């Protein structure tokens, strides 16, 4: 793997050199660049498959990974953000609102990670307080009333751990979402776009269809947390990531999710537009299927789907 | 408690004879001479005591005689500290004698993630505790009132919820719908079980969906939170009772104290995430002493078994 990393850097350096050369001399060498880019994609794919889950963890957490804003801009028209939980405050770690998706009015709810430090502080690094989940639930109940489908994007390291979060009932807030979402009388699609961190992610993840981007992760505990418990060493997170079965492929096999959305070579951050388009296309496909169902049938199917997850013998 | 009181009360005890004392047998009676005058037995038993006979209260440090403790429903006779009960003890003290019937006793845990040492851990615990998993579910009576129940067990990987715990609880709620019965769940859990990964997390949604289903049928669910109830269990069915009861001083919360302290880099107050803290912040209806638990449950059940306001009772 080390040598592949080296080759990747070499190729990137060569591409840059050729670009400079083309600019200064005016000679067209784009054919050369295409060949090099293809080689680069192939190497990235190899690195990913060889290094396994941990590399996906890193890609899922990449600072340039498309976030809620990219999806709002790329998937929705006339989006209007709606604020607050009507109880305590507006939580910036969850963004919600209404807009058109392929001409259909939808309710959109997403964990919100920032792309720089300033925005991350505002958004609490995508880690919601109870009021964030209560805002999400308020908007879902509103969607139910106006018969709008709900699109949830999951992208959080986890629900926030702090004094205020406990005082205001973090557990209750998440629990309430699980209960209400299981029975919400309108279609729901959830897409894990980056990190799906435990209960804080699941609180937006009880849906008719749960999709995952190819390099996103969804886990009961962070690999660091697992490593500190299992291996008594949080720095061995790469090892722990292998045990947790947190990749899209693993979770499709375990029937926790319903479909996988492809990412550009090397990860979503390499081509944000392509990623957003892929997500939009897959949501369209699944939305069409679930919107065709009678609402009682839809809710019954959702219940049965949730009820069937689990592995045991008797 | 002094030596003499223990002998009088229990007729036997393990005694560590101090060096300066001497033991004589006279007329079939044991006489200990020069026994130092000890006001507090815990001074002597501080370091070494026979665990078959004594238990030390983790809260006040009192040395308690196990038989007394047992008769007091495992509650400290001095400071009211509620010792943890395992699932069998909970069933024994809560439900009418011999009334419990059990559901899904043969459901078995698998190792779907091939998580290291998980299989061994499960089978060792099954042998040691003589229970299959972290929850016992079934049907029982409280003062002749039928209910369905779940009793979690902290001794089984801290009552963590994997596929079996989730499935057993969901089925129990569904059985209660079929039988038109209320549900009482005694929670004690560290949360979702890491060793089954996302399958464990998904059980939170599964049991919450079953709670909603049961609720949609107009049936009562009483959630009893005992020490400790945390993580994914707090963030699912434990917080979803129509009525939520906590045992005194139980630790109840979402995130672990250590995790919060690491996040905010400051020490947390003593009563943080206690049952009393939750009552103050509006997340439990009442705190009930173990001795009054059965009667309280019975009263609540009775209040919910009358006719509705449109009909005759």
TrEMBL record, chain A:
Enzyme class: transferase
Superkingdom of origin organism: Bacteria
Cited InterPro entries: Acetyl_CoA_COase_a_su (IPR001095), ClpP/crotonase-like_dom_sf (IPR029045), COA_CT_C (IPR011763)
Gene Ontology cellular-component annotations: acetyl-CoA carboxylase complex
One Pfam family here: ACCA
SUPFAM superfamilies with a match to the protein in the record: ClpP/crotonase (SSF52096)
A GO MF label: acetyl-CoA carboxylase activity
GO biological process: fatty acid biosynthetic process; malonyl-CoA biosynthetic process
Pathway note: Lipid metabolism; malonyl-CoA biosynthesis; malonyl-CoA from acetyl-CoA: step 1/1
Keyword Chaperone in record: no
Record-linked PROSITE patterns: COA_CT_CTER (PS50989)
Keyword Lipid metabolism attributed: yes
Cell compartment(s), UniProt: Cytoplasm
EC nos: 2.1.3.15
Limits of the CoA carboxyltransferase C-terminal domain: 35-289
Catalytic activity: N(6)-carboxybiotinyl-L-lysyl-[protein] + acetyl-CoA = N(6)-biotinyl-L-lysyl-[protein] + malonyl-CoA
NCBIfam families: accA, AccA_sub, PRK05724.1
Binding partners and assembly: Acetyl-CoA carboxylase is a heterohexamer composed of biotin carboxyl carrier protein (AccB), biotin carboxylase (AccC) and two subunits each of ACCase subunit alpha (AccA) and ACCase subunit beta (AccD).
Function: Component of the acetyl coenzyme A carboxylase (ACC) complex. First, biotin carboxylase catalyzes the carboxylation of biotin on its carrier protein (BCCP) and then the CO(2) group is transferred by the carboxyltransferase to acetyl-CoA to form malonyl-CoA.
Family statement: Belongs to the AccA family.
Record protein name field: Acetyl-coenzyme A carboxylase carboxyl transferase subunit alpha
Natural source organism: Fervidicella metallireducens AeB
UniProt gene name: accA
